[in-house]
Amino acid sequence: MKIPVMILSGFLGSGKTTLLLRLLQETKRLGMQPGVLINELGRQDVDGHILEGFHPGSIQKLLDGCVCCSKKNELAGSLQTLLQQKPSIVFIELTGVANPEEITDALTEPGLVRSFELQQIITVIDAEHALDYNSIFATDRQLVYTLRRQMEVADLIVLNKTDLAPQHQILKVENMIRKHNEKARILPTAHSRMDVNPFLQEIYEQRKSSNTMATPGIRTIHIGKQAVMERSEAKRVPSTAQPSHTRLSTLCLACPPHPSLTKEAVERFLGQWNKSLLRAKGYITIPSHQQTYLMQLAGKRVYWEPSSSVKDPYLVFIGIDLPTEDIQQAWNKLYPSSLV
Ligand SMILES: Nc1nc2c(ncn2[C@@H]2O[C@H](COP(=O)(O)OP(=O)(O)OP(=O)(O)O)[C@@H](O)[C@H]2O)c(=O)[nH]1
């Protein structure tokens, strides 16, 4: 029986990892064995740390590039490694700038098609910021194209961060999504909180009975109480896909503890680069609190979450035309590591 694959797509910071955690909690509850493939643009792995404790050994990481372009050749190897763990389901969390159809294409290649079967593409949309992206990225047509494809090829759209957007804005985002995808169910959520059991229960039952019910080209998707039959090939567009991004770059800053490192100072530093900075995340130890935090800049918001300490704290920046050298120099000036 082929291993079902669930792809999680959606722009940077929309809530993919938050949803992945929910899916993993439910797979654990059902006693299923998940395999996870995480792809991150930065060299340092932030999401992998967040998932620590979940099924160690069954997480593969592809760092420092996007699996739909520069890391594409490594996708098959990572999936083959996961295969050795005999997972009952595989989740692939894409980078925020990945075009999911590139991965669906890769899954149909000879080395993988016999082992894996695409079950579902879930795209997570940030209700607070989605409407701004078209104007923010007006000059980067490839990125606008990618964001559109993320919506168009989705089977389910999780409209997340509804706690941060007024109702009239949520309706506008729904209309925008509908223009790009007439069929997919749109599920408004906060903190990617949704009932993931129906997705997994069906797979669990299928694998228990090893009963291949699927008619070729048709799959049954259960969302909540609704079951939708649809022809999968209708949405699978063969590779006219383009690489998903052009001007994106990443930077990793080392953050050894420094006496003047405070949350406020870090937020001021992030604000300095807000023209080009799209996302930042990483681990920082604040000496005055004697505490390490997972810091996340997503959209215009900064989140601080207490975390267990990490060996070498770091921050990953992701942005368009990011002035990486200027940022590095400014950081070194503020926090020379020799002062540690
Ligand atoms: N207020 C609010 N915060 C959220 C919600 N969902 C996620 N967050 C926070 O937003 C930040 C980014 O969430 P992630 O789940 O890491 O987003 P992501 O899509 O995986 O991000 P990338 O992997 O960088 O693309 C985290 O600090 C989350 O706690 C939500 O619905 N409401």
Would you give an account of this structure?
The chain is an alpha/beta fold. The chain has two domains: 3-234, Rossmann fold (3-Layer(aba) Sandwich), CATH 3.40.50; 248-339, Hypothetical Protein Yjia, Chain: A,domain 2. It has helices at 16-30, 47-50, 72-83, 100-107, 110-113, 130-136, 141-152, 167-180, 197-209, 263-272, 324-334, and strands at 3-10, 34-39, 59-62, 89-93, 116-126, 156-160, 185-188, 218-223, 226-231, 248-254, 277-286, 291-298, 301-307, 314-320. The strands form three sheets. Strands 3-2-4-1-5-6-7 form a seven-stranded parallel sheet, sandwiched between helices. It has a five-stranded antiparallel sheet with strand order 10-14-11-12-13, with helices on one face. Helix 1 packs across helix 9. Bound molecules: guanosine-5'-triphosphate. The site of guanosine-5'-triphosphate has 21 residues, from helix 1 and strand 12.
CATH class of the largest domain: Alpha Beta
Number-wise, the strands total 14
**CATH topology title of the largest domain:** Rossmann fold
Hetero groups in this structure are: guanosine-5'-triphosphate
Shape: globular
- H/I helix tally: 11
Strand order of the largest sheet: 3-2-4-1-5-6-7
The helix-strand sequence is EHEHEHEHHEHHEHEHEEEHEEEEH
Pfam family, one: CobW_C
Protein name: CobW C-terminal domain-containing protein
Keywords: Chaperone, Hydrolase, Nucleotide-binding
Family: Belongs to the SIMIBI class G3E GTPase family. ZNG1 subfamily.
